[in-house]
Amino acid sequence: MQSVGVQQSMPDARARQKKILDTAHKIQQNTRKGTEKGFRIIITGKGGVGKTTITALLAHLFAEKGFTTLAVDEDPQMNLPFAVGMPYEESDRIVPLTQNLDYVEEKTGARPGGGWGLMLTLNPDVSDVVERFGVRGPGGVNILVMGTVVQAATGCLCPENTLLESVIRYINLREGEVILMDTPAGVEHFGRSIAKGFHQAVLVTDPSFNAVQVAGHLAHLARELGIPHIHLVINRVRSEDEVKKVRQILDGRSMGLFAGIHVLPYDEGLVRCEPDVRPLLRSGSLFIERLRTLQKTLVRFGK
Prior knowledge:
By secondary structure, the chain is α/β, with parallel strands linked by helices. The chain has helices spanning 10-30, 51-64, 80-84, 101-108, 126-133, 158-170, 209-224, 240-249, 252-255, 269-273, 278-281, 286-302, and strands at 39-45, 68-73, 135-136, 141-145, 177-182, 200-205, 229-237, 260-265. It has one domain (10-302): Rossmann fold (3-Layer(aba) Sandwich).
């Protein structure tokens, strides 16, 4: 994987962040969007509840059904490609947007101070954008990775998120195309405008109190952002009592925001196959059958 030195000076880091923001704003101003026929799904929740695993599995399930699928990794940890099944030794194929700004500028024509090409008037589909910025993973799943911050001291991911938001909105989804976006842990980044324009939100929790509290907060944020369909996924469930616990923690006001609740049982197979989720798809386990039901639900609400 390409690396960026963490010792970059603060002035250089600030200049780079300004360049990212300039590029993002140029894309926003010049993108011409047509009517979309595909759909966008954001997957979020507290850290450690299984968001990346579920995103990767859903991506494969959509691809199996013939959808052109783009799995977007917004998490700075950049684990989604390996969950999808990319071998770690091929990590140099991953080209994060934040580490390839010159390439983004070249392909979009969004070079600050420069002229504009025709790229932004073409309304590219998912496959087209992947050819420019992403990588094709196993099973026909396309992958787009945001990347991480250049220097820990710079703190905020605002410029990087703004760039990703611009590129994601730049994609014009066509019939049979779907974007699945895996977000960082917690509520901060979900609360940003990047979630706007997504048609559905999958909120993942486990039965722990803290995780359920985060899911409830996220449900209200999703509604405020205008996401019409919000789905709750309770992961790693070992008993019906745990499901009752989740319902008790989420008050009636929060429960009323969900289009549906999907319960995924604890599956030891997840530990054995980590990080590559593909062996689970052939297991025939109840966990996978429940995920297939979730995928069908997302298709139904996406129409």
